[in-house]
Amino acid sequence: MMKLEDLKNDWQQNMTISTQSNLPELIAMLRNETSKIDKEIKRRDFIEITIALGLIPVWSWSLINSAGTVQSIGLLLAIASCIYIPYRLLKAKHVVSTKTTSTLDYLLSERDKVKQQQQLLETVVYWYIAPLTLSIVLITLGATIDATGNVTISAQMTIYYLMLTILVVGIYHLNKRAAKKKFGPLLNKIEQRLTELQA
Amino acid sequence: MHHDFAKLITENQGRLRYIAKRYSGAGEFEDMYQEILLQLWRSFASFSGESKRETWVYKVALNTAFTFVRVAIKHREGQQTIVDYSTGDTQPAQDNCQAEILNNFMNQLTDTDASVLMMYLDDFNSDEIADVTGLSSNAVRSRIKRIKHEFENSYIGE
Fold it and tell me: Cβ separation of A103 and B115 shorter than 8 Å?
């Protein structure tokens, strides 16, 4: 009868056979790939933060020259959104799970991280789309209020709001689908491994 | 650091390639192997040397393989990849009969059991396997017992 012990020698021999690798080139390539990934992450973070923070002076200047209360509320909301959105994005990105812990610990922390990212994407309507849309609506609507307090929405503005609604609904659905497609398979994989480990 | 990392890869190439082969889906081997090397490189600075090198390699490689989804690295046609540099002219000698039996058996096991078996064959004791997997030492021992039993039942008379 063949026993597992009989295969140990064979296995260990196979595992320690080193192929003729071009190690200096391999390491150079790993360094390149790592710095490329890091640069890409930094670039993305920088763009997200710069756009959001860069808009604050624009909103603030508009607030000083605001046409009325409605527009001011819209501008204040826009400023708050420009502070809150990058904060929320960066906070989610800083959840890291280290690969040098045990598989069980790693999978548990990775599951939490993925769930948090999935939830972030699923709830994008509440913390990203809704405040920005509402502020845009209030800012534009505020500009149409006349001295008597009446709102006059032109045909062009009606089309604009209609397009905005379609865009917002589209973004919402795309994000919802992305959350499912991007994180669903990974979450399933993690859950499967965890079930196996804890069985 | 580069020299140490090169040594680590040289010593563990067989293991890393086996892990990538065992846990990758169809057409995923290259990407997974590349991702494992990248994660080893990224984590190498934090390797304190408190545990055995092989234990650390197993942790990083298995954790990467277990959560690998094919999106990390896009290959560009006509460009060399990390795998091109790390693949030599010869492949590990996995072509003998015993290796084939082991491969077949390994593929029948769950992913967790396969990882336990790999480390067992690498002469890890149950505490070391427990350290990598997060299972208790007792749970590791009973898994090994069950895997041995399954193997012996599958290959009676071979």
Answer: yes
CA distance B111 to B107: 9
To probe the interface with A, which of B43, B52, B121 has the most A CB atoms within 10 Å?
A: B121
Question: Encoding tokens for residue A51?
Answer: 């756009």
Q: What ipTM score was computed for the predicted complex, to two decimals? A: 0.81
> Does residue B66 sit at the A interface (CB-CB below 8 Å)?
yes
| CB contact burial B138-155 (16+ within 10 A = b; e otherwise) | ebbbebbeebeebbeeeb
For residue range A146-185, what is the model confidence (pLDDT) as tens digits?
878 788 888 998 999 999 999 989 988 888 888 888 888 8
Distance CA A193, CA A199 (A): 10
Evaluate whether B36 touches B19 at the Cβ level (below 8 Å).
yes
Cα–Cα nearest to A95, from A112, A118, A72: A112
Dihedral pair phi/psi, residue B13, rounded to 5°:
-55, -45
Does B82 sit within 8 Å of A29, measured CB to CB? Answer: yes
> What tokens were used for A5?
């012990």
Burial B101-129 (b: 16+ CB within 10 A, else e): bbeebbeebebbbbbbbbbbbbebebebb
What is the pLDDT at residue A12?
Answer: 84
Interchain proximity A7–B158, CB inside 8 Å: no
Instruction: List phi, psi (to 5°) of A145.
Output: -80, 130
DSSP of A44-86: HHHHHHHHHHHHHHHHHHHHHT-SSHHHHHHHHHHHHHHHHHH
> CB contact, 8 Å: B13 with chain A?
yes
What residues of A are in contact with residue B122 (Cβ under 8 Å)? 11-12, 15
